Amino acid sequence: MLITPTRRSFVAGGAACSASVLLPMASHLAAADTRPQLQIPPELFSDGKGEIHLAAQSGTMQFGRRTPTPTYGFNGPFLGPAVRLRRGEDVVMHVKNALPEPTTVHWHGLIIPGDADGGPHQVIQPADTWRVPLIVDQPAATLWFHPHIYPATAELVIKGLAGLLLVSDEESDGLGLPSHWGVDDIPLIIQDRRFKPDGSFFHRFNLAAVTVGYVGDTPLVNGSTYPIAKTAQGWLRLRILNGSNARSYRLAASDNRSIHVIGSDGGLLEHHVSMNELLVHAGERFEVLVDARDGQSFDLVTLPVDQPIMRLPPFDKPLPLITIDPTGAEGAGTLPDALVTLPSIPTTPPPLSQSLTMNMNRDDEGMGALMKAGLKKLTDGSTDASVAKKLTEVIVDGPTLSQAERSTANGVNGSSFALDAKPFSVKQNTLLRWRIDENSDTMLHPVHIHGCQFRVLSMDDNPPPAHLAGWKDTVAISKGGVAEILVNFPHAAEARTPYMTHCHILEHEDSGMMAQFTVS
Ligand code: C2O
Ligand code: CU
Ligand code: CU
After folding, report:
1. For residue 512, how far is its CA from the centre of ligand 3 (angstroms)?
2. By the 8 A CB rule, do 62 and 54 touch?
3. What are phi and psi of 224, to 5 degrees?
């Protein structure tokens, strides 16, 4: 099921590592009958009483023709509904924990006070319900929610706990963007998994995991492998969430059509940015428009990325993630010339008030084990099956770590996260400049900050590329890189419920690469 004839022909044709590889259309459509349809998460609005009910629960899912997989989900067996919020709306979220273990639920990207944020201090015990008021006051955006319990976020997300949180507002309503849910406004939650022979998800917190994070071998889009989406014929809006624990995707259309980026993590850009490939790191979201007025079917593929371990097969070649078949009724949305107006960046930025340095304490050891298994071969582009096998062994069966080794494997500013670690303090309602960097490790870290949407001032001393110049809550640094950001925290976060800042590689976060802070 995983290797369909379609995929095989694509991969064979894609050896040149280029996005502009066309599928033979005949086999493409012939195979369509046996392929899963893209699942569209149901929308969930607040009810007549201004309440939204979520339940984290366990279930079972069948992925392809595999043995059924034990899973977790919100209001269903895997992933969750798309929660719809409107700017200016007050809702009360009711989050029931029907799991056999404690969890928390964090609203990633929502600008709300610390006591509503759902961080690791706000544990919901099994059978309990967390009732939390949310006051929505931020621009339209594609956000998401997921567990944030220390140190088990990675494991709970792997099991399936993640959902979209969509904020709408009047300004974006007036733009004529495609907005027919599941028809020309299509959510794409991209994740990777590895399955064990008994059908369950692989997850292990070993040396390889604290070094490079989760390395899956099966991409999933909204919980299906290589699904096909029947959409409107016209402009399509894709709301892309990289909900993977660690993997970055380099997205392109198989026929090389343009990807017009209209929005980033926290909202719409001023103008669209047309690209042929779009890099999306763990935790990030982009809204993009693609022109499918021609009614021609195409694939969204992911191209090999820079991180060598993430080039393990099948990610060593352009890998199709989903087929878009835009042969439905004509869509009504368009690509507007101008989108929204963003606050201008002050010419003199405020003084630097906070530095965050990501630390990897076991980088040498972890990379050493992977190097010994032949990691370098992957950068040369050779995907010798025996090298791939050895590397997979390090990922799956490599050295385990004790609890103490695990919780100190990574850090921020020289210390590893602990629930009782002393928070740093931040001034509320003030424009601040922060600097985010890493020591000198070889990993890429998508660094996320709670309680805000920020603007990137610079990346490695250069202005950010246009598609990263809007609202962001996650910024990636790599290869000894530095990012500077302009940020403001409009709400308070007390010491009992501080905000978090962390690497969104969830295995890094769960092994200490997280810090907490108060805002007052
Ligand atoms: Cu998406 Cu602190 O997390
Ligand atoms: Cu967050
Ligand atoms: Cu990291």
Report:
1. 10
2. no
3. -125, 155
State the DSSP string of 402-455.
-HHHHHTSEEETTB---TTSPPEEE-TT--EEEEEEESS-S-EEEEEETT--BE
Supply the DSSP symbol for 156.
Answer: H
Alpha carbon of residue 435 to chain centroid: 22
pLDDT of residue 33: 66
**How does pLDDT run across 445-460, given as a tens digit for each residue?**
999 999 999 999 999 9
The ligand with the least distance to the CA atom of 107 is: 2
Peptide bond into 139 cis (omega under 30): no
Q: Are 318 and 18 in contact (CB under 8 A)?
A: yes
**What's the gap in Å between 397 CA and the centre of ligand 1?**
28
Q: Which of 291, 298, 290, 294 is nearest to 323 (CA)?
A: 298
Query: Which residue has the CA at smallest separation from atom 3 of ligand 1?
Result: 108
Q: Which residue intervals of 39-143 are DSSP H helices? A: none
Residue 242 has pLDDT above 80, yes or no: yes
Spatial distance between the Cα atoms of 46 and 92, rounded to a whole number of angstroms = 8
Ramachandran assignment for 311, one of left (phi > 0), alpha (psi -120 to 50 degrees), beta (any other) = alpha
Question: What pLDDT score does 366 carry?
Answer: 95
Number of the ligand closest to the Cα of 108: 2
Q: How far is CA 56 from its chain centroid?
A: 19
DSSP codes of every residue in 266-335: TEEEEEEEEES-EEE-TT-EEEEEEEETT---EEEEEE--SSGGGGSTTTTS-EEEEEEE--SSBP----
The whole-number pLDDT of residue 411 equals 98
Q: Is the CB of 285 under 6 A from ligand 1?
A: no
Q: What are phi and psi of 474, to 5 degrees?
A: -140, 130
Distance 232 CA to ligand 3 centre (A): 38
Structure tokens, 284: 């990030």
DSSP state of 31: G
Ion ligand 3 residues within 5 Å by Cβ? 445, 503, 505, 508
- Give the Å distance between the CA of 272 and the centre of ligand 1: 26
pLDDT value of residue 441: 82
Atom of ligand 1 nearest to the CA of 144: 1
**pLDDT at position 380:** 80
